[in-house]
């Protein structure tokens, strides 16, 4: 796949879920053993629900897919409800019948396992309100490796919405920019007016570590945005 950016604007979040599910379903149909980096966060949840619906209906088989974890809070005790791995399992892995998971705990083990798999076929990403992808917080350059990071105040605020009543851990482990930019294809999902300015910086501004998502333009990138995020 030649690097290049395609931007599709759809009317609203349900249309985004449909288009995104269709995008990934086509790739899984073509390559049943697809290796997919799987974002959590709110934006892809409609997409995953649509894919699960297809699996239930028998029109999509994800049993050959490998799901690769994008990010995780650091230092959570086993079974903590805030675990992003648990979120990925309940929203993507289990409902889609995916059999193989590459967890993100130890950066060295993760990097080694990914290399053994031959890298990522597809990265499915959301856009952080500060331009982060995964937890590659600004500033993160294109070579930033898989590592533990301190979360920015903005990410602590935006992630608080996921865990009402629970505090957000202050540190996280993230797949590196090097891993993400190495994916053969990338799907970036963006929904809502609160993402409009940062999406414009990522797509129309300079490539800069201050907006890590701006480096996605170096890849074979499909952006699916709703009209609130990309008027
Ligand atoms: C979070 C996560 C990302 C996610 C992004 C967008 O902080 N670290 O993996 O993709 O920010 O989240 P949302 O889709 O909820 O806006």
TrEMBL record:
* UniProt cross-references to InterPro entries, sorted A to Z: Glc/Gal-6P_isomerase (IPR006148), Glucosamine6P_isomerase (IPR004547), Glucosamine6P_isomerase_CS (IPR018321), NagB/RpiA_transferase-like (IPR037171)
Write down the superkingdom of origin. Bacteria
The record's Gene Ontology cellular component field reads: cytoplasm
**Any GO MF annotation of the entry:** glucosamine-6-phosphate deaminase activity
- Please state what the protein is called: Glucosamine-6-phosphate deaminase
* The protein's enzyme class: hydrolase
Q: What is its EC number?
A: 3.5.99.6
PANTHER family from the UniProt entry: GLUCOSAMINE-6-PHOSPHATE ISOMERASE
Asked whether the UniProt record includes Hydrolase among its keywords, one would answer yes
Domain spans labelled Glucosamine/galactosamine-6-phosphate isomerase: 15-219
Keyword field? Hydrolase
Which residues are the signal sequence here?
Answer: none
Tell me the organism: Deinococcus metalli
User: Mind listing the GO biological process terms from this record?
Assistant: carbohydrate metabolic process; glucosamine catabolic process; N-acetylglucosamine catabolic process; N-acetylneuraminate catabolic process
